[in-house]
Specification:
Length: about 500
């Protein structure tokens, strides 16, 4: 929240207003690009950005994190709009927002920090791959296949179309040029880099298209009020559909995880107050509830805009609130400006954003140091590409739980022979059903003609399955002429 004391300091106000302009210029093309890629009117991306600034920006949680439509939810939104229709998107987002509010009030925010980092990285990598596969077609102004695997299989045909079709080649050239500008912009002098790279890339592509007399596809713009479609009772009735409920859960969990992981990353970039995760989760929920009521896109905290906010020198929430105000003024006063931006250029921005979601540089060191975590990341990402976002994340979480259970169930079995021929078998560590086959295999190798003692006093944990199996082994191990196995706990 913005304090009165901060607003009385002209130096702070001036610095944060300047930072808000930088964030606005970064957010503008991203809001439009995410909306177009999600299959909804471009203006709805601006609506979500406005709510993220003016509403979420005023709420407690994180002072410097900036919220709006995110590339990370593009795939899920596109699938939801395709399957259930644009009219049902509002109720889905609203229900997801209310669920986030309840989770925050119940103080579940901190528990999102317990989600395996590899699963989150795999989720983002999978989303990034799906975004790139889809937006390559959009860069050529070509209709994309329905599934990620179909998009992958269709790449040779896409390449052939780009080479043989002048219109496709022209559009793809604008998109590729946008990506090139985004890649080269950080290497330019600091004075040039004062203009955010996404805005510069889109502006240059638009200028080239206009000066060269090109006619690429552009967004269909009807104005902010025309784009907003308040959901009615019929649309809310769709929430009774089991498939819709699953989508609501996916929206809420993925948006929450992405927002709170973004908060952790932003907290490492500044020395100001730390994020209150429960309050931030409530704030994100309130924002999504309002976006849902307006029929707009879902929101998350966005690392690109948040990082730009911190790097621009913002120290209070004024910058993120003001960036929402600039988005509102632009949407109200200059909506037609969106209608001249080539869709291929917006697709290029999302291709670049999708590639940044894939941790190419981090995967090698992760494979060398923590191979299991690298496998978890890769499996989650590939599962999202092969199936869908929700099923891929669920599989990743299940694998993380199994991996954790396997790694924590270490158990050591040692034997020693005492004078008189008595054998003492000692188990230490954690004996769970996951290690039971190995334990029984070693026990069954013991001689059956010697008195045996099974020492379980060194176990930190013994689950029910192991206890029953060990008792059964002790009863049947020795023959009738030998003393039965004794168990010491």
């Amino acid at each position: 929240m913005i304090s009165v004391k901060e607003l009385k300091n002209p130096h702070v106000v001036r610095r944060d207003l300047l930072a808000s302009l930088v964030v606005f210029l970064v957010a503008l093309p991203l809001c439009v690009g995410v909306a177009v890629a999600s299959g909804v009117p471009a203006e709805l991306g601006l609506v979500t950005g406005i709510v993220g600034g003016l509403v979420v920006g005023m709420l407690p949680g994180s002072k410097l994190q900036v919220s709006g439509p995110a590339a990370g939810l593009t795939v899920l939104v596109y699938e939801a709009v395709t399957e259930f229709g644009l009219a049902t998107l509002g109720p889905i987002v609203l229900a997801a927002g209310l669920l986030q509010v309840m989770l925050g009030v119940a103080r579940f925010g901190r528990w999102f920090r317990a989600i395996s980092v590899s699963v989150v990285q795999g989720m983002l990598a999978g989303i990034g791959l799906v975004i790139v596969l889809g937006q390559l077609y959009a860069m050529a102004d070509t209709e994309q296949p329905g599934t990620a695997l179909a998009k992958l299989a269709g790449l040779p045909g896409l390449a052939a179309e780009i080479v043989t079709d002048n219109e496709a080649m022209t559009a793809f050239g604008l998109g590729a040029g946008t990506v090139a500008v985004l890649l080269l912009w950080p290497k330019l002098p600091a004075r040039v880099r004062m203009v955010p790279a996404p805005l510069a890339a889109v502006g240059l592509a638009t200028a080239v298209a206009a000066l060269a007399g090109l006619r690429p596809l552009v967004a269909d713009v009807n104005g902010l009020l025309h784009a907003i479609d308040l959901p009615g009772a019929t649309e809310f009735g769709n929430l009774a559909n089991v498939a819709v409920i699953g989508t609501v859960l996916a929206f809420a969990l993925i948006a929450s995880a992405e927002s709170l992981f973004s908060a952790a990353a932003i907290d490492r970039m500044h020395d100001g107050p730390r994020t209150n995760y429960d309050k931030e989760l409530v704030a994100q929920g309130v924002g999504n509830t309002i976006c849902g009521a307006l029929g707009a896109l879902p929101m998350t905290a966005v690392i690109v805009r948040s990082a730009a906010n911190v790097q621009a020198g913002a120290t209070t929430a004024l910058s993120r609130v003001a960036h929402g105000l600039w988005l509102l003024l632009f949407a109200a006063l200059l909506p037609a400006a969106i209608g001249i931006i080539p869709l291929a250029s917006l697709a290029g921005i999302l291709v670049h954003a999708g590639c940044k979601l894939v941790p190419f540089k981090e995967f090698g060191p992760l494979w060398r140091e923590h191979r299991g975590e690298a496998v978890l990341l890769a499996v989650t990402a590939l599962a999202i590409v092969v199936t869908n976002l929700f099923e891929g994340v669920v599989l990743g979480l299940l694998l993380a739980v199994v991996k954790s259970a396997w790694e924590t169930s270490h158990v050591q079995l040692s034997t020693r022979q005492l004078t008189g021929g008595r054998v003492v078998v000692t188990l230490t560590g954690n004996a769970t059903f996951l290690r039971l086959p190995r334990i029984l295999e070693q026990l069954e190798k013991l001689p059956q003609d010697q008195p045996t003692e099974l020492d379980l006093s060194g176990l930190r944990h013994l689950d029910h399955a192991c206890r029953v199996a060990l008792e059964n082994w002790a009863r049947r191990h020795n023959d009738a002429e030998t003393d039965p196995v004794t168990i010491r706990r």
